[in-house]
Design goal:
Blueprint: H1 29-38, H2 45-54, H3 58-62, E1 69-70, E2 75-78, E3 81-85, E4 88-92, E5 101-104, H4 107-127, H5 148-161, H6 171-182, H7 187-194, H8 199-209, H9 211-224
Antiparallel strand pairs: 1-2, 2-5, 3-4
Helix pairs in contact: 2-4, 2-6, 6-7, 6-8
Keywords: DNA recombination
Organism: Kribbella karoonensis
Pfam family, one: Phage_integrase
């Protein structure tokens, strides 16, 4: 077009489908509280706490290092994710700028992380020279990174015990979004906490799970018009 060889921009005729985002219903407040009870003695209790309260992704949880956490000042930084790439377990840089973020820690998260650190120290002492010092927060009993599939296997009995059959581990992240928005936290704050690339994703998750609020709104309309 700059050379005036064509009269219109044919690229405008191309129709691009919007991205799809699979969303399941998240946990309600009672289910979230029950999950806390069920995971009380689970070696990965702190991982489930961060998934539910901070909305961290699986790769972010598994890629979290102790050097990324400041328990005294109560924050953590998401700098990398742990993923399988070409069959190899690798730490990779988050895909988007918003995914690379600093998240404050509430006292409950700090307490669970301190407890987890003590548990890990006991594991280190018990295996002695077999311990592999990777620096990861969530590891196997000998310090090596946790395979993503193995984390899923840990989750299955947890969700069954909590009466959450069919709920995916990723749905804890969705639960964080819906519970925060249900408490009237501004959407842009929720977006910053969970690291969504854009606000549309945050609101799509909420719209999928806010049937009770929509029903209440429609009831108000019905009452108003009668």
């Amino acid at each position: 077009m700059r050379e005036e060889l064509v009269q219109r921009n044919v690229a405008k005729l191309v129709q691009v489908r919007g991205a799809t985002y699979e969303v399941n219903r998240g946990l309600n407040a009672d289910q979230a509280r029950n999950l806390r009870v069920v995971t009380e003695n689970n070696p990965l209790k702190a991982l489930y706490t961060l998934a539910l309260y901070l909305g961290l992704r699986r790769g972010e949880l598994l890629g979290l290092r102790w050097e990324d956490i400041n328990l005294d000042d109560k924050f953590l930084e998401i700098r990398q994710t742990l993923q399988r790439v070409d069959g190899e377990l690798r730490a990779v840089t988050p895909k988007t700028r918003r995914s690379r973020r600093t998240v404050p820690l509430i006292d409950l998260c700090v307490d669970d992380l301190r407890e987890h650190g003590e548990r890990q120290a006991r594991d280190r002492k018990s295996v002695g020279e077999r311990w592999v010092d990777t620096g990861y927060v969530f590891t196997t009993e000998i310090g090596t990174p946790i395979e993503p599939d193995n984390l899923r296997r840990n989750w299955y009995p947890v969700r069954t015990a909590a009466g959450l059959d069919g709920v995916r581990l990723h749905d804890l992240r969705h639960s964080c979004v819906t519970l925060l928005l249900g408490l009237k936290v501004p959407p842009h704050i929720v977006q910053a906490i969970v690291g969504h690339a854009n606000l549309d994703v945050t609101m799509t998750i909420y719209a999928h799970t806010s049937l009770d609020e929509m029903r209440a709104a429609l009831n108000k309309l019905g009452e108003h018009l009668t």
